[in-house]
Structures are given as C-alpha cells and as structure tokens.
Amino acid sequence: MDGPEKQPDTAAGDDPTPAARSRLRGLLRRTGSALAILAVAVAGVALGLLLAGRVNADIGPFRAELSVGPSLTGDTKVNIPPLGSLVLDTHQGPSQLTVKLGELDQGRVEALIDDPTGITRATQSVVGDIQRGLMRLGFRAAAVSMLAAMILAGLIYRRARPVAASGLTALALVLGSLGIGALTIRPQSIEEPRYEGLLVNAPALIGDVQKIASDYNKYAEQLQRLVGNVSRIYATVSTLPVYEPQEGTTRILHVSDLHLNPAAWPVIRTIVEQYRIDAVIDTGDITDWGSEPEASYVASIGLLDVPYVYIRGNHDSSPTQAAVASQPNAVVLDNEIADVAGLTVAGIGDPRFTPDKETAGRETTEEEQARLAATGARLDATVDAAGRPVQIALVHDPKMAGPLAGDVPVVLAGHTHNREVRELEPGLPTLLMTQGSSGGAGLRGLESEEPVPLALSVLYFDETKSLQAYDDIRVGGTGQSQVTLERHLIGDTIAAQPTPTGAPSPSPGGS
Predict the structure, then answer these.
(1) Which residues lie across from 456 on neighbouring strands?
(2) Nearest to 72 by CA among 84, 89, 49, 85
(3) Same domain, residue pair 98 and 168
(4) Strands 308-310, 330-332: parallel, antiparallel or unpaired by DSSP?
(5) Keyword Repeat on this protein (predicted)?
(6) What pLDDT is stored for residue 371 in this prediction?
(7) 434 backbone dihedrals φ, ψ, rounded to 5°
(8) Which of 110, 207, 236, 419 has the most Cβ atoms closer than 10 angstroms to its Cβ?
(9) Does 261 lie in the same domain as 328?
(10) How many domains does the chain have?
C-alpha cells in the first residue's frame, strides 16, 4: 500500500533566504539614502539660488543684475522696469537666466567722460562684459548651491559622508544644468521673443528688437553702439553752458512728453543742478499707457530737490496722476492754481485718455476739438476767479490754450513733439510756448532712423515775475553727441517756425 503522496515543498523556494533578504534590505537602504541625499541636494540648490544666485555686472556704464533659478523649460527672461519683460527661448534644461536692467552708474559715466578714449573702449567691451558676468554667475551658482546643500545635510545627518555627498550632488546638478544650457543655446531665439507686461502693447519695440537681432554679430554691434551713444549724451550734458542771471531771477525748467524714457531723468537732474533751477514744470505724457506698472517711472521726481509741477497728458491716467502726486516735491494741478517758486501757476489735465497706438495719424475730431476748447475755458474761468495775477498757465494740448489769450502772459504746452513759440492771438499779450519731447519721443526714439533729440527749455522770470528770456536746449538723440543751446530774449522776434523734435505719439491729434 502506497503511503500518502508527498506534496512539493514550494514554500522553501518562494521564501528568500536570510542572505537574500539582507541583500534586498541593503539595496533598499542604499536607494533610500541616495534618494534622500538627492532630495537634500535639490533643496540645497533651490535654496542657494533663491538666496544668493545672482551677481551684479557692469555692462559699459550700465548696471545689471544677472540671476539663475530652477525652471522646467529653460529660457531667458529680461526684465525692463517698468515696461515688463521679454522671454527668450534661448536654451533647454532646468535653469532659467534672468537679466534685470538697472540704471546708469554715475561714477562709471563720469570716469568715461574724463577719459577721452573711455567711451570707445567701453563700447568695444560690452559683449565681453556680458560673458564675464555669466561666468561669474555660473561659479557663484555652483558655490552657493553646494554650500546650501552641505548646510542642510549637516543639519539632517550630522555626519561628514552624507554632507560631502549632498554637496557633490548639488554641484553636479548645477554644472549639469548649466552644461545642458550651454550645449543647447539658440542665438536665433532673440528673433522670437515673447512679451509680458506693457511690452505686449509696444509693436514698435518688437520691430526694433527683431531688426537688431538678425544675427549675433549685428546684435553685439547694436549693443555696443547703444552704450556709446547714451554715454556721449551724458558726456555732453555734463558740460552744458551755464547762464548767470541777475540776483532775484526765477529759473523754471519746462519739460513735456517724457514717454517713459529713462535717459530723460539724468538730463533733467543735470540741468536742475547746473542751472540752479527753482522749479520744474511738466506739461504731461510722462508715461505711454498710464498703467499701474508704469507708476514706478515717476519715482525719479522725488530725487529732484525742487518743486515738480505736473499736469496730466492724454497718455497719463488717473493712477499716473496719483503716482506723481505721491512724490514729496510734486505739485499736481487739475483746474487748480498754486504758488511755486514765487510764481502763480494754473493748470488743468488733458480731458482725454487715448494711449491706444492704433489711432495713429487720425486727426482731432470736431467733438474732441470742442472738448479741448471747453477744458481750456474751464481753466480760464479758474484764472479769472483767482483774484490774483497768474504768471503761467499749463495745458497739455496747444488746442486747449485759446480761451486763455489775454488773461495769462505765458501758456506752456506739449503734446505735438514740436518746439514752437508764438503769440497765442495777434495783439494779445499771451505767449504760447509748446515744448518738444523731453524724452526724445520716448523709447521709440532709441532705434528710429532719424535720432530724436531731447528737448527742454529754461525760462527766466525777473523780480517782477515777467518772462525775460528762455534757453532752448536740445540734447542729441541716440547716435548724436551734440548739445545745442539757443538763447531767446523776450522782445526779439520770437515767433519762429516749429522745430520738430520727433514724431508725435501715435494717438488722436498728436501724442
């Protein structure tokens, strides 16, 4: 009789031996340790780049901040305060380069001015300056990432081996991502920028960027020329001739239509200091779109040590006006009268808000003309009711000035980007002084075929508060280094032909 059938011993084959279980546990432990070290390294890289992954670079006389950070798509972001940013698909990999454009370094500008060959040498070194800045950024990013990872590992493990492993892993991550970026760089990406912020609304700038970026060499040449041109502007402004008026003379600087040009502020500051200006009068269009991000541009008003009288232009919004009013030395007039530097000044803002460039070339309609005239009449009624003489009235568009004829000796305006001085109405003692663009037609003037000069004027009032003379100052636009000054005495033949200082902003009836 056969005994019971013997069953196969499957359990012994399925159950790993103690040695196998030990090897499996060791593998899992090593994998977990490696993943933990990788996580610490990634966290260290992110923390290090966030806290210290940036360098300041001198690019000619300019200051810029270069920074690098984690990214899923790579690319390069160029921040242009207050306009917005450009995003360029420059490379692949987990790192994003950010370039923040800053202001001119006054000390470096003065050094370039003192050295006759400084500007030429600075323009030739621009591309090298950028390359050196990127090299410094790469070394710094690697160092701070490695250090941050080692500090985190030290806090977690408190043992030398995982600390060293975390630091080396972080270093490998940074160098690997930077290497991928260098190997996948796309110089042609500058022809395909993506615009964020206000630059979305700047098709003129888009064309200029693409024009200067047909290839890398042409881009480098344009960059060098831009540095040289702006440097020459500051060099010539620093040697403006100084007029020494009689004691008791009040000096007023008239500016208009800055249109966000950052180069205008150093020019204004230089003239204020060298001419010992008592007050600045701005007849509007300090911005382009009147948006909230542009409000930071007006912060330079507070750096001037004199009153800054302002009226709203058709490119300026109510938030723009509020931003100007928040400056400590600003005097904002909107159908109001104020005493400034011993003179009584009346002003009113433009009734329109028309920043849309799609309206380029359209003439002022009859309805708009009537609205402008009515606004001028409101200001004239305010002047009549003041009960005291008003020496200066401010309007943005010269079309608003008509009702003021015979009631105010001087009316200051802007809007047209054309300098013109004439009697407002024949036989009436009112002088209409329309300013050109003190911003050189804004950023649109930087790459125009014909350089657009910055136009400013200094008005001299004597002790009786009467206008005695004025100086017209024109600072050569990009590509030109000359500064011209023309003296005009009241009583001479002052009704001259309009002097163009740049095409008016594309909007109804002018800027």
Answers:
(1) 473
(2) 89
(3) yes
(4) parallel
(5) no
(6) 94
(7) -95, 125
(8) 419
(9) yes
(10) 2
pLDDT in tens, 324-373: 999 999 999 999 999 999 999 999 999 999 886 544 445 678 888 999 99
Q: Among the three residues 151, 183, 203, which one is the final residue of a domain in this structure?
A: 203
470 and 329, same structural domain? yes
Largest CA distance in the chain: 145
Whether the per-residue pLDDT at 187 is higher than 90: the answer is: no
Domain match, 247 and 119 both: no
Please, what is the Cα angle at 102 between 105 and 507, to 5 degrees? Answer: 120
What DSSP element (H or E) covers 379? helix 366-384
Phi-psi region of 465 (alpha: psi -120 to 50; beta: other; left: phi over 0): left
Which residue from 502, 302, 258, 301 is spatially nearest to 396, judged by alpha carbons?
258
- Residue 216: CB atoms within 10 A of its CB come to 12
Alpha carbon 223 to its chain's center? 17
77 and 155, same domain (yes or no): yes
Query: What is the CA angle 25-31-37, rounded to 5?
Result: 135
DSSP label at 442?
G
Tokens of 265: 């502020």
Does 222 reside within a domain?
no
Token look-up 């370094």 returns 105
Is 251 found in the same domain as 171? no
Please answer whether residues 359 and 508 qualify as being in contact, where contact means their C-beta atoms are separated by less than 8 angstroms: yes
Token pair listed for 257: 């239509």
- Angle in degrees, 0-180, between the axes of helices 160-183 and 18-52, rounded to the nearest 10: 60
Helices and strands, counts by H and E, the chain: 11, 20
Task: Give the 3-state secondary structure of residue 138.
Answer: helix
349/410 Cα distance (integer angstroms)? 17
- Would you say 113 and 134 are in contact if contact means Cβ atoms under 8 Å apart? no
78 bridge partner residues: 86, 99
Beta strands in 356-482 (DSSP E): 392-394, 410-413, 418-423, 431-434, 454-461, 467-475
